[in-house]
Amino acid sequence: MRKGDGVTYEPADGGLPTEENWDTGAYLDFVPTYMAAVRDKFGYGFQLLHDVHHRLSPIEAARLGKSLEPYRMFWIEDPTPAEDQEAFRLIRQHTTTPLAVGEIFNSIWDCQHLITNRLIDYVRTSVSHAGGISHLRKIFALAELYGVRSGSHGAGDLSPVSFAAALHVDLSVQNFGMQEYMGHLSPSEDVFHTSWTFEDGLMHPGNTPGIGVDFDEQAAERFPYTPKYLPVNRLRDGSVHDW
Ligand SMILES: [Mg+2]
Known about the structure:
With 243 residues, the chain is an alpha/beta fold. The protein has helices at residues 24-42, 58-68, 87-94, 108-116, 132-145, 160-172, 188-191, 217-220, and strands spanning 19-21, 49-51, 75-77, 99-101, 122-123, 149-152, 178-179, 192-194, 197-199, 202-204, 213-215, 232-234, 240-241. Strands 2-3-4-5-6-7 form a 6-stranded parallel sheet, with helices on one face. A 3-stranded mixed sheet has the order 1-12-13, with no helix packed on it. The protein has a two-stranded antiparallel sheet with strand order 8-11. Strand 6 (149-152), helix 6 and strand 7 form a beta-alpha-beta unit. Bound molecules: magnesium ion. Residues 51, 77-78, 103 line the site of magnesium ion.
């Protein structure tokens, strides 16, 4: 994948959100077989990360983590809703699979309990959502004291400006873990001219002064805002579940 190719594993569409089906039992049975097949075919010479999207209960997440231990995940992300932070203590009691959470957090106070109680391994706060460069550095400094590493959120709705800032934070902390990157749709390159690059799974900030991004306002006028929404999940009985 190159910058600009975009990735649609979190597809947003115009109009009403699309509906998808969800079955927790089928998911918990399927994921370990999927990871086993990947390791069987490609081996262990690369990292596997899996985003659970807050779809499990604490004990279900514990079962998932335990079942994935043979496949040595780099992390499982958002196994349960992030607001219920004691849930991570329960998950911890059952599995050594590393846990990542925090993409919805807005400040150091949102992750203080998880970090200081060593309930997670990666804190996923991002420069755009958690107070900018200075505040994010405070969060990562606190995390460093407790052996928690950075793993900033990097969905496609975070702009190329945001990624430039994120990269500079990543390079400045001792406990860097991983930077998520989903890419951007092609028109973004007409509007944002960045010195940072993405190649073979690695990002580089480039050598331009500052954070190295120019923003073309005239080009931006060609792309008026159109609302788009992520899908919703429905269980077999039609009720709504976290997507
Ligand atoms: Mg995520």
